[in-house]
Amino acid sequence: xxxxxxxxxxxxxxxxxxxxxxxxxxxxxxxxxxxxxxxxxxxxxxxxxxxxxxxxxxxxxxxxxxxxxxxxxxxxxxxxxxxxxxxxxxxxxxxxxxxxxxxxxxxxxxxxxxxxxxxxxxxxxxxxxxxxxxxxxxxxxxxxxxxxxxxxxxxxxxxxxxxxxxxxxxxxxxxxxxxxxxxxxxxxxxxxxxxxxxxxxxx
Length: 203
Prior knowledge:
By secondary structure, the chain is of the alpha+beta class. The protein has helices at about 5-30, 40-45, 65-90, 95-110, 115-125, 160-165, 170-185, and strands at about 140-145, 145-150, 190, 195-200. Strands 1-2-4-3 form a four-stranded antiparallel beta sheet, with helices on one face. Strand 3 (about 190) and strand 4 (about 195-200) form a beta hairpin.
């Protein structure tokens, strides 16, 4: 990455903030259900916090890549720890968490029935945090008028979940619900082809 702020840096920072919204939703659930009143303080102490001020007001312009990577790590750890801690408290709440993630996707979507699958795919790429751009976590497999298929080349999330003693499958379960929420107003469905391949189809 360059030494100057450009569109790609704002793009990535926005995705970091969107994942932080997931963390905030999990924390709110924990507090509302009296599951872990100290979850926020535990996350803050162990992994740090995300500063939501405009990017140009806080980023270290002498180390843009490093600063963004650190922010990615913070929100990855916070999400993995928050979800894992709650599921260890009560494994029966996974359905509640699925509802939270799906509803968050519905709330945050910018898609409607007027959007194409190509536009929906771009929206997913603009929303979901999959590491740094240089990680090339996903790649497009095929594209038709009403279908987009892509493959996960590398899982950039698993190390975070492993380090907090979590199950990476829980991340993908919740991520799928979030995607379904994002697509819910567009008449587009999400499908898993296999463990690393996904597609979206417009009816």
